[in-house]
Design goal:
Length: 243
């Protein structure tokens, strides 16, 4: 493994995990962030059940894409197998987040996809954020985290993981991803925000339908399309933010 690049990855993953707490997206030890070094297939991920105040860059556990620990004395997150399966199938992502944030998890527990009602949602997610099927008993009795990945991957046979960088796992909670761990956290933050707004919108207008296609296309494509013009072109600018 290239030492300098791996240590930099651990630092980025550590900072992304701490950002979850700062943003109010996790409670207790719930939630985790990972990141991958693609050339070596090395994943850095939060250790299982360790309180956030005790985390450090060095405590981010290194695993390979076969779910084997390659460095670290702590057990990796219990969700590690889910993360590595997504990295193997989604080759353009560099970071993954799982939380039990309140509003996104409410939609997951309700077993409902998150509709796109407005442009804030459309800036990041191209249409609804899907909800997986409820895991079957025989899946639960097998490798649970592996089967969680199976549920997500089966759902994304009908969605594009690049234009919909997140999913609601039925009865469980959200997963998001991005080009980097920091971007995956950002997508988790936006998902929680639009999940709360969607609930409020339905309370105001229970029969509300989704955003019209032309407005969805305009807001998503002005940021992510071939002729995107939102943001700045200079190096380091153009952070993925709505507005």
């Amino acid at each position: 493994m290239p030492e300098r690049e791996i240590r930099a990855l651990q630092e980025r993953v550590y900072r992304a995990n701490m950002a979850l707490r700062e943003l109010g997206l996790v409670v207790a030890t719930f939630g985790n962030v990972s990141g991958i070094h693609r050339p070596s297939g090395t994943v850095a991920i939060k250790p299982s059940g360790v309180v956030y105040d005790e985390l450090s860059p060095e405590s981010m556990v290194l695993v390979d894409l076969d779910n084997r620990v390659v460095e670290g004395t702590l057990n990796p997150s219990s969700d590690t197998r889910t993360h590595v399966r997504l990295y193997a199938r989604f080759p353009e992502i560099g970071g993954i987040v799982h939380t039990h944030s309140k509003y996104a998890t409410a939609w997951a527990q309700a077993r409902r996809a998150l509709p796109c009602f407005g442009t804030t949602h459309a800036d990041i997610f191209y249409g609804e954020v899907p909800c997986t099927a409820v895991m079957r008993d025989e899946q639960i009795s097998r490798d649970y985290e592996e089967e969680t990945a199976v549920q997500i991957l089966e759902t994304f046979e009908r969605w594009d993981y690049r234009s919909t960088p997140g999913v609601l796992v039925a009865c469980h909670g959200p997963f998001t991803w991005g080009n980097t761990p920091a971007q995956a956290v950002y997508h988790s933050q936006v998902l929680e925000y639009v999940a709360e707004m969607a609930l409020a919108s339905l309370l105001l207008t229970p029969e509300l339908g989704g955003i019209k296609k032309s407005l969805l296309d305009k807001h998503y494509l002005r940021k992510h399309g071939a002729d995107a013009y939102y943001g700045q072109k200079s190096p380091g600018a153009g952070r993925d933010e709505p507005g």
